[in-house]
Write a structure and sequence with these properties.
It contains 13 helices and no strands. Helix 4 packs antiparallel against helix 12. The protein is mostly helical.
Length: 336
């Protein structure tokens, strides 16, 4: 929730752990149409970079306390982006812009990404990405529950049931961890993170703060990081942090999450939301889990079992149904 992750939210859902999905499309600046090559490169970036952030988180939390790592990540990325925007002449945000984006950042980064970071201490990165693939279903439910929200169709409700069935099969609560089941606390935290991400995403649609999309992203990262650092203090992360014990590969993963995951990946997402349709951008929800499972197997030797394959097919199918149904029922939101 790597990451997250706000413009108008893609109808297919949001990536775990990413900074803000509410940022794009709020500046009102009409950019020239990009080349096909630029679009292909941008899509490849969000497919590969965001899919790889789950592996980065898994490696980082091997020797870094979870909430402290996440808070430091978004504090660094948000500060760098904020400083860059101010250097380029961006206006100082208003109190309303700080407040609105801090709320969004709390739901997305503390509730969404923070839960995922904690869970990845116990759940393999590939499985985490697969469970997060169910995130669009939470967005549908949140949108339904929101005042004036849209009731899902029978097809969408069927996809909700299918998606939860896939997660249940993947988690295998009837089996012990040794017998093939997953850490139920970790799975529960990921699902709570998906719910928090959904709330933040839908709230971001209604929060009319008027900030430039990149400034909104910086504010959300700064606001979310503040709450994550408070959580780190309550969780005892500062006392447990041993800088000498942090491995070089954990530092490398941490730097990757800041640079590639929070800055490059999210900036690319914002750009794509201006130049493509939400339904097309949302295709990363199908590709990211595949990338994460493959990288987890290749680098960390995380097993790919028949249960993983069946569960992934069910979850991806449910997300595909949700995305197709919502894009069929409604056009892309008008850019303000």
């Amino acid at each position: 929730m790597n990451p997250a992750r706000d413009t108008t939210v893609p109808r297919g859902g949001l990536p775990a752990g990413k900074a803000s999905v509410a940022a794009a499309g709020t500046s009102g600046v009409q950019a020239p149409a990009p080349s096909r090559t630029a679009l292909v490169v941008a899509f490849a970036a969000i497919y590969l970079i965001w899919g790889s952030t789950y592996l980065g988180i898994r490696i980082a939390v091997e020797t870094m306390p979870p909430f402290l790592m996440a808070g430091a990540r978004f504090l660094t990325a948000g500060s760098l982006l904020f400083a860059f925007l101010r250097w380029r002449g961006a206006a100082w945000p208003t109190a309303h812009q700080w407040r609105a984006n801090a709320i969004i950042g709390t739901f997305l980064l503390f509730g969404g990404n923070g839960a995922v970071v904690w869970a990845e201490q116990f759940v393999p990165s590939g499985i985490t990405a697969l469970v997060i693939g169910i995130g669009p279903l939470f967005i549908v439910l949140t949108e339904w529950a929101w005042p004036g929200g849209t009731r899902p169709t029978a097809v969408t409700l069927a996809a909700l049931v299918l998606g939860f069935a896939g997660v249940t099969w993947l988690a295998a609560p009837w089996s012990s961890t040794a017998g093939g089941g997953l850490h139920l606390g970790g799975i529960g935290a990921i699902l709570l993170g998906c719910a928090s991400w959904g709330i933040g995403a839908i709230y971001s649609r209604h929060a009319k703060h008027g900030a430039d999309p990149f400034m909104a992203s910086a504010l959300q990262m700064l606001g979310g990081s503040a709450v994550l650092l408070v959580a780190a203090l309550a969780h005892g992360d500062f006392g447990r942090c041993d800088l000498e014990a942090i491995t070089p590969r954990a530092w490398g993963a941490f730097a990757y999450l800041i640079g590639a995951g929070s800055l490059v990946g999210f900036s690319t997402f914002v750009w794509l939301m201006k130049h493509s349709t939400p339904a097309r951008v949302a295709t990363y929800a199908y590709v990211n889990p595949v990338v994460a499972v493959f990288l987890g197997w290749l680098i960390l030797a995380e097993p790919i079992t028949p249960r993983t394959i069946v569960g992934s097919i069910i979850i991806v199918a449910a997300v595909a149904i949700i995305t197709t149904e919502k894009s069929r029922r409604a056009p892309a939101p008008e850019r303000k």
